[in-house]
């Protein structure tokens, strides 16, 4: 039998534990780090690569991706979806600015209840969604995602089908500089006449009328292997499924490439527990409807079946 693809993740963790470079990082927590890693996941049969050696809250991961796609940058809308994975950064900023030792629960309650408070303290700056959908230059806003989708429809052989968030001019305004930076797309198995043909009606494929197989390579400059990577891979797979549906293509491969890939020193027990477990089959994903555009997906559109993970493992986030 083929080796379970989750072993790519386990091999990376094992490598970090055995050979990781011990470093003091921005957070002060410390890491075991390596430079350069790759994992590949085949999504063509509906596979949804949600890791199984610990429970991944896939709905939270997908909700974050849907939030990125809105172009929003305030945690208020995330909290309304019961997603608090971005709260640590504005909470830390608020505590340092005011000297108030407010609890996370009370801070989030104020963000939800008070729009003015949320506007002042809940905004993360021009993070992912702002750059993806509203990159500002010379007074003009550029929607990179919309441009990508249009290019996939009209020129799927292009080598310029990507979007990214590393806006040098605005990095110092962001609560956290982009970690997963570059999303590059590639179409294979295109029907006759697809390459260079700008008439969408001519772009056909033998696969049930699909126009080709769409793959995604994500370049991530910095990766928290214990907490971040399971979320990132899940939401990137969800994005590939959504965009493939929007452009009448079949999902192909999700290829994840990491730069500084690290394990926080307070995640060592988490890592050892994961390595003691055997991966279980990945679940399948079905999109229950085809929304009018990439902007119209909701979490209710995602039907995930067959997810049977090992128990969750709690671990702290390094801020």
Commentary on this structure:
Helices cover 33% and strands 21% of the residues. The protein is an alpha+beta fold. A six-stranded mixed sheet has the order 1-2-8-7-6-5. Strands 3-4 form a two-stranded antiparallel ribbon. Strands 9-10 form a two-stranded antiparallel ribbon. The protein is globular, with a radius of gyration of 20 Å. It starts with 6 loop residues before the first helix and ends in a 14-residue tail after the last strand. Mean pLDDT is 93; it is low at 193-207.
Q: How are the SSEs ordered, and which strands pair?
A:
Elements: H1 7-19, E1 21-23, E2 31-42, H2 58-70, H3 75-80, H4 88-98, H5 104-113, H6 115-121, H7 128-134, E3 135-137, E4 140-142, H8 144-154, E5 162-164, E6 180-188, E7 213-224, H9 228-246, E8 250-264, H10 268-275, E9 284-287, E10 302-305
Parallel strand pairs: 7-8
Antiparallel strand pairs: 1-2, 2-8, 3-4, 5-6, 6-7, 9-10
The portion of residues assigned to helices is 25-40%
Mean pLDDT: 93
**Sequence of strands across the biggest β-sheet:** 1-2-8-7-6-5
Helical stretch count?
Answer: 10
SSE sequence, one letter per element: HEEHHHHHHEEHEEEHEHEE
Largest sheet: 6 strands, mixed
* Content-based structural category: alpha+beta
Which term fits the overall shape? globular
Instruction: Classify the beta-strand content into a percent band.
Output: 15-25%
The total strand number stands at: 10
């Amino acid at each position: 039998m083929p080796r379970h693809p989750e072993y790519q993740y386990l091999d990376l963790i094992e490598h970090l534990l055995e050979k990781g470079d011990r470093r003091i990082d921005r957070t002060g927590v410390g890491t075991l780090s390596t430079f350069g890693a790759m994992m590949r996941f085949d999504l063509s049969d509906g596979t949804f690569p949600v890791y199984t050696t610990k429970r991944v809250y896939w709905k939270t991961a997908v909700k974050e991706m849907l939030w990125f796609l809105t172009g929003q940058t305030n945690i208020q809308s995330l909290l309304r979806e019961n997603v608090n994975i971005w709260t640590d950064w504005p909470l830390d900023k608020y505590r340092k600015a005011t000297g108030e030792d407010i609890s996370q629960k009370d801070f989030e309650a104020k963000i939800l209840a008070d729009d003015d408070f949320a506007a002042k303290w809940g905004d993360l700056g021009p993070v992912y969604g702002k750059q993806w959908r509203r990159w500002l230059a010379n007074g003009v806003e550029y929607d990179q995602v919309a441009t990508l989708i249009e290019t996939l429809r009209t020129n799927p052989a292009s080598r310029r089908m990507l979007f990214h968030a590393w806006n040098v001019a605005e990095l110092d305004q962001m609560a956290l500089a982009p970690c997963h930076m570059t999303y590059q797309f590639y179409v294979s198995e295109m029907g006759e006449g697809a390459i260079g043909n700008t008439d969408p009606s001519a772009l056909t494929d033998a696969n049930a009328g699909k126009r080709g197989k769409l793959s995604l390579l994500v370049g991530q400059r910095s990766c928290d292997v214990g907490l971040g990577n399971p979320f990132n891979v899940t939401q990137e797979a969800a994005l590939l499924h959504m965009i493939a549906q929007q452009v009448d293509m079949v999902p192909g491969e999700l290829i994840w490439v990491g730069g500084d890939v690290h394990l926080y020193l307070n995640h060592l027990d988490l890592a050892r527990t994961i390595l003691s477990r055997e991966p279980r089959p990945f679940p399948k994903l079905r999109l229950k409807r085809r929304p009018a555009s990439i902007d119209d997906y909701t979490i209710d559109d995602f039907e995930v079946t067959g997810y049977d993970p090992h128990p969750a493992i709690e671990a702290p986030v390094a801020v």
